[in-house]
Amino acid sequence: MGIVLRKPQDLFALKFGDVVTKRNLYELIQYSKIEGSAYWSDAVHKIGNTPQQGINWVGELPDLKAVIIKTRSGAYAEDGWSDEHKLLYRYSFKARKGKISYKETANRVLLSQPQFQYPIFLFAEKKDAWCLEGRFSVAESMDKYVVLNRQNPVLGLIDRIVEPDELQYPEGTRKYVQHLMVERSKSVVKALKSHNKQICTICELDFFDKYGVRYIEAHHIKPVSEYQESYVVAVADLELLCPNCHRAVHIYMKTTHLEYHDIKKQLKNRCQG
Question: Residue 159: its pLDDT value, please?
Fold first, then answer.
């Protein structure tokens, strides 16, 4: 029979491989928003849905609690695992009459995930039930789909996603354009990492030599919030930093309003002092 979900909060107790019936999940989604029903919890845990019923969300932006995704083999051409280890999953944006709007709630809850860090519960169809594949985050956004990565993967296999404080943009259309630009710059980040030794350009830390795992972060020399819609991010716009130096740079940017190269000079002097 599997797990029985009685309230939206029960989703957070599910573990990888847990199975719930389609009827149970359907009723939870439909009746969690009806006050007085057996599935009602409170206003902040209402589950929203789309006509396609493929994606749902618990709560409302910006205070979303979670996203629920139900996948069926062959439902959408872009959907499916990107790797044999099932760490990465491609999930299509929802479209109306073939046209994708990034402002539509079903798509906004995906694009906003890196900023607010709520979990994405990914379910796969299993006959008359849904099997939980695990909790996921948005790792990359393309024109037609997002790439989801499994949370808590093996250390070192998945690159760091953009820090939440780098994604605080004004409301409106510009927010979505900038967000997509940041995500598309992942290819540039990968190119930078693949063609350069992963050593911090400020403190010169070699993460692998010190900790035995490969890790480095890419910093936008020019703040992303200052990019124009037509700007194309290039390798020269980024520098590789260790986590500590990267965080220190952002603190300096907020508190001193200095340009990156001035901050870099100050921090290098401190590291060498």
Answer: 35
Structural contact between residues 200 and 240, judged by C-beta atoms closer than 8 angstroms: yes
Give the β-pairing of 66-71 and 120-126.
Answer: parallel
**Verdict on whether the full-model pTM lies above 0.70:** no
If asked whether residues 98 and 166 sit together in one domain, one would say no
Rounded CA separation 95/40 (Å): 29
Q: Pull the structure tokens for residue 107.
A: 């798509």
Q: Are residues 139 and 203 in the same domain?
A: no
How, if at all, do strands 129-141 and 19-21 pair? antiparallel
Task: Answer positive or negative: Cα dihedral of 8, 10, 12, 17.
Answer: negative
CB 138 within 8 A of CB 159: no
Give the model confidence (pLDDT) of 4-20 as tens digits.
999 999 999 999 999 99
Q: Return the CA Rg of the chain.
A: 21
Greatest distance between any 2 Cα atoms in the chain? 65
Residue 23's region, left for phi above 0, alpha for psi from -120 to 50, else beta, is alpha
Q: How far apart (Å, rounded) are the C-alpha atoms in residues 113 and 182?
A: 14
Question: Per the structure, how many domains does the chain have?
Answer: 2
Give me the phi and psi of 150, to 5 degrees please: -65, 130
